[in-house]
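Weekly modeling sync, notes
Attendees: AB, CL, MP (scribe)

Item 1: holo prediction request
CL wants a bound-state model with PRP before deciding which constructs to order. AB pointed out that an apo prediction alone won't tell us much about the pocket. Agreed to run with the ligand included and paste results into these notes for async review.

Input as submitted:
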Amino acid sequence: MKNVDDLIASAAELADRGLSKGEIADELNVSRETASWLVDRSGASSPEQTDDAGGTSGPQDIHVDWSAIGRDSKRMGYIAHAMADLLQKEGEDVDLTIGIEKAGAPLATVVARELDTDLGSYAPAKHQWDEGDIDELGGSFSRNFAQIRDRECYVVDDTVTSGTTMTETIDAIREEGGEPVACVVIVDKQGLEDIDGVPVYSLIDVVGVGRES
Ligand SMILES: O=P(O)(O)OC[C@H]1O[C@H](OP(=O)(O)OP(=O)(O)O)[C@H](O)[C@@H]1O
């Protein structure tokens, strides 16, 4: 996805398929505010045509396209080296890295290799969502990869947008008896220091300028 016109076209297509602005936000990896703005700009009708969240000046959110890294294993290796370096500030002898599907899984693979840890994979609840109340669904750890087994672990994803996915993953690891020691992402759009007491590291923090809060 290269520019805002592509995003607007994608938002229009998803809105035409009946997805809500929240679902469009998840699909396009942007905030709900931005999804609302994209749908409004496209002229498509959405199930929730409510506020003009972005106004005429556009939304505050940004879309992060890191495909120049993701499509090249050598570049992924360099990024993993940097992400692993951030993680090494926390924990000693952590031997498990959990990637959040989908985009976090390949990143976690290269980070785990860099740190010489086992590799686990978590599918958040939203990936199982089809219809109905997402709160009634749970995420799951893939049986094809390492299990938590009461271990300390690192958590890897590509982005934090609202923080919902990372928060869910931290909860799921704790429910399995594990202890998340630190999280790392390429881009943190919230600029978070921690989530539920777990430090969040990012290569890039996105800071809104001129926001009131
Ligand atoms: O902080 P949040 O608001 O929860 O958003 C961040 C999450 O959204 C994206 O996942 P997406 O559902 O787009 O799946 P993907 O990994 O397949 O891109 C991204 O990879 C994070 O997991």
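Recorded for review: The first strand starts at residue 96 and ends at 100.
Action items: CL to compare against the apo run; MP to circulate these notes.
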